[in-house]
UniProtKB/TrEMBL annotation:
Name by which UniProt lists this protein: MKS1 protein
InterPro entries hit by this protein: C2_B9-type_dom (IPR010796)
GO biological process: cilium assembly
Entry GO terms, CC: MKS complex
Organism: Illadopsis cleaveri
Compartments it resides in: Cytoplasm, Cytoskeleton, Cilium basal body
Keywords: Cell projection, Cilium biogenesis/degradation, Cytoplasm, Cytoskeleton
Predominant cellular place of this UniProt entry's protein: cytoplasm
Amino acid sequence: EWSSSPFQQLSGVTQTCATKTVGWDNVAYFCYPFTVEMFYTQEDEESLPQWPVLYFEVLSLDFWQRYRVEGYGSLVLPASPGVHVLTIPTWRPVELGTVAEMRRFFIGGSPELEDLTYIRIPSTFKGKRLSRFGFRTETTGSVMFRLYCLQQSKAFLESSALRQRMQSVLDRLGGFSQQSSVYNVLEAFQRARRRMQEARESLPQDLISTSASAV
């Protein structure tokens, strides 16, 4: 249910980057920017969407122009917007025996995957259980991705408009509550003033004149 523009490039190759020794590890800072724009059309409201998957392959190139596969990996694009830093471990297929490792070291080349979707679930797989019994691999390293995710939807606009509408209603209610509180204070003052006048009128006149002269 995901689609993209026909002019959208969905695959690419980074530049060659020299590694640097950081502690006990050899680190390559690719700093390779890429942009992917995809569209999701929901037909069934009950089903949950499956987010797109990014597959990657790491290759090495030595002084003698010999290529080697250093690792495969995949990551599911984050479902929430914002900045995400993900570190994905990699692995590569291996052959048994020292001859294969010596061939890899001196000649170059190594076992490779014909279909990159085999990193997760092969595109040709139709069964219920996927068995990788007998497929030998070894861990090799990790790749760090810094992703900046943006999401746009009409539902977001509707919800923001609803929030603005609710905010305006709350503002009005707040104004009404302030006005009502002022009115309540004025009414209480008027009631107290009337009670004072009634009490003054009920007192004897000689008591009122005596208190006035004493003051």
